[in-house]
């Protein structure tokens, strides 16, 4: 990925970011020892059935409301991965990763971190300060949100087709952004819709592989039973829909396999 413009936070400890992960320009602290390699792998499923881009463009999934649907595009941002020690000291990776399932990019990234046990969490999307920055790679990926809807960037673009009440294929655009009202020259923001995901305590030693699972079916069912006949397109300026996405997103991610 293209190097991003630095984001707001000061790291508790400075980290070395490896592989193709968008990161800030930082100095390395040679006194951090010993170091371990942590690799995050993002996998996707539908209530336990693995999904890759090989499963896209085919109507083969049924959501909790009973809508038959396909997946045609899925990409989203995770940011500010945080490792918190038992003494409540935090290491924050002040950067973001665009997970693009459609193009098989950003499905894993690797970082170096001091050996130890940490509570691991991350942000889905970008918090408000980070969302106000300018990221050349996200611009070129057409991940922007129009200024009339507050600017910044999408948190997720999830597109597909579903069978509507007329038994016809119809497109849907399940796009998550910062919830906005009064689209135009003076938009207002009723509620933050980025959210934190807590993966629990993970021991980082040597080369640690951490699976982060997204159950795509959860976007449609908990706590809001999602009817694609009602909410399918033009959801970005719909703050009610955005807040429903925020609510449903709380159960989407979970910790999968951790291997050393």
From TrEMBL:
Alphabetical UniProt keywords: Signal
Copper-binding protein MbnP-like domain residues: 39-225
Top-level taxon in the UniProt lineage: Bacteria
Signal peptide: 1-25
UniProt xrefs under InterPro entries: MbnP-like_dom (IPR046863)
Record protein name field: Copper-binding protein MbnP-like domain-containing protein
Taxonomic path: Bacteria, Pseudomonadati, Bacteroidota, Flavobacteriia, Flavobacteriales
């Amino acid at each position: 990925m293209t190097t991003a413009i630095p984001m707001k936070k000061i790291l508790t400890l400075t980290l070395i970011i490896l592989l193709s992960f968008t990161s800030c320009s930082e100095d390395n602290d040679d006194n951090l020892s010993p170091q371990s390699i942590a690799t995050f792998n993002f996998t996707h499923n539908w209530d336990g059935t693995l999904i890759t881009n090989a499963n896209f463009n085919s109507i083969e999934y049924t959501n909790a409301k009973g809508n038959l649907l396909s997946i045609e595009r899925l990409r989203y941002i995770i940011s500010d991965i945080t490792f918190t020690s038992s003494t409540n000291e935090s290491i924050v990776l002040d950067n973001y990763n665009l997970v693009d399932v459609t193009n098989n990019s950003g499905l894993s990234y690797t970082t170096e971190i001091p050996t130890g046990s940490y509570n691991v969490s991350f942000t889905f999307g970008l918090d408000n300060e980070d969302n106000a920055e300018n990221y050349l790679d996200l611009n070129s990926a057409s991940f922007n949100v129009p200024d009339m809807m507050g600017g910044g960037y999408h948190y997720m673009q999830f597109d597909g087709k579903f069978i509507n009440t007329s038994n016809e294929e119809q497109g849907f655009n399940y796009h998550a952004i910062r919830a906005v009202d009064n689209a135009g020259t003076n938009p207002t923001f009723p509620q933050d819709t980025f959210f934190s995901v807590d993966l629990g305590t993970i021991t980082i030693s040597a080369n640690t592989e951490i699976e982060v699972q997204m159950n795509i079916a959860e976007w449609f069912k908990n706590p809001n039973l999602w009817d694609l006949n009602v909410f399918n397109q033009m959801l970005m300026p719909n703050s009610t829909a955005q807040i429903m996405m925020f609510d449903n997103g709380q159960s989407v991610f979970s910790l999968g396999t951790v291997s050393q």
